[in-house]
Amino acid sequence: MAVQMLSVRVPAEAALELLEGETGRSLSELLRRIPVDVDMVHVDAAELDRGSVAHQAWKLLRTVDDIGWVKAGKLLARKRPRLLPVYDNVVKCLLGSPSHFWLPLHTALRADGNALHHTLLDLRKRAGVPETVSALRVCDIVLWMAHCEDHRSSRCPGHGTLSP
Asked: What is the C-alpha to C-alpha distance for residues 135 and 139, in angstroms, rounded to an integer?
């Protein structure tokens, strides 16, 4: 259900595995170890790097049939909206293909005294968006909206690869 808010459909067999199967139990254990109440900007890079609990959760999700990198990332983004970003085909096309998207975004959010993070919070306030929407979700929306129309058109080299 969590990823349906991000226009993603998880096939029934995969959903059952995540809700009732061994993968779901393992994922729940990993999620218990990933902070819920902290923004990406306030964690150490080690919390997001390869080998981190969050990365382990992403890799575990990828082992489920019909859960690709986009669905895995969106599921984690819904489960930890302050900590983990949405990274789909639109964002990938806009920003290129960083080797590990979480770390460059983390660096950008923390640069210049967390200037980007503060800009996102200000944008949220000016748009009248509730404080329950994290700065990271505002970033996700801004990035997606900046490229979604071009991405759908022939002007984009990644044309036709909107996320599922």
From this structure: 6
Give one DSSP letter per residue of 114-138, joined into a string.
HHHHHHHHHHHHHTT--TTS-HHHH
Instruction: State residue 5's pLDDT score.
Output: 61
Taking a C-beta distance cutoff of 8 angstroms, is the pair 83, 54 a contact? yes
Q: Which residues contact 148 (CB under 8 A, 6 or more apart)?
A: 90, 162
- Which long-range contacts does 116-124 make (Cβ < 8 Å, 24+ apart)? 117/39, 117/41
Close Cβ partners of 15 (under 8 Å, ≥ 6 residues apart): none
pLDDT at 86: 87
Which string of b and e fits 56-94 if b means at least 16 CB within 10 Å?
Answer: bbbebbeebeebeebbbbbbbbbbbbbbbbbbbbbbbbb
Q: What is the pTM of this model?
A: 0.83
